[in-house]
Amino acid sequence: MPRSPETASFKFNHTMLRVKDPQASLKFYTEILGMDLVAKNEFETFTLYFLAFDHGTPTTPENRFAREGILELTHNHGTESDPAFAGYASGNADPGRGFGHIAITVDDVEAACARFERLGVRFQKKLTDGKMKHIAFILDPDGYWIEVLPNTYRV
Q1: Collapsing DSSP states into helix, strand and coil, what is residue 137?
Q2: Which helix H or strand E contains 105, and what residues bound it?
Q3: What tens digit of pLDDT does each residue of 34-58 get?
Q4: Residues catalogued as catalytic
């Protein structure tokens, strides 16, 4: 169905995940996945971190809300040091089942997964698991699932 004139400018700008420890999450998303921290907004009780893959075009305050593919990490201050904080629901287990995963595509899924293994990344599903041998799922520090699939994948 063609987009209507009313929706022609709509874009999927970002999705938000709550994180317990922003330093662990930022390290994972920038050093393990290679995303760029494109903005940080601090407030009294929470901080927002915006990450993206900037492939040659830097994300700036002027274009941040005009592009697609941004990940927003929200840190509610104090969760990182609260021994009673049990973490957030990843959406893949009860209670809280609903949200499933985010996904990244890579040139070489086998090489990417080998690198993740060398770096000690936790896997939910390795390439060798199950029937779908062309995709993997890794876990971020909060247990959110990240699907890793080849950028040549066709359904």
Answers
A1: strand
A2: strand 101-106
A3: 999 999 999 999 999 999 999 888 9
A4: 147
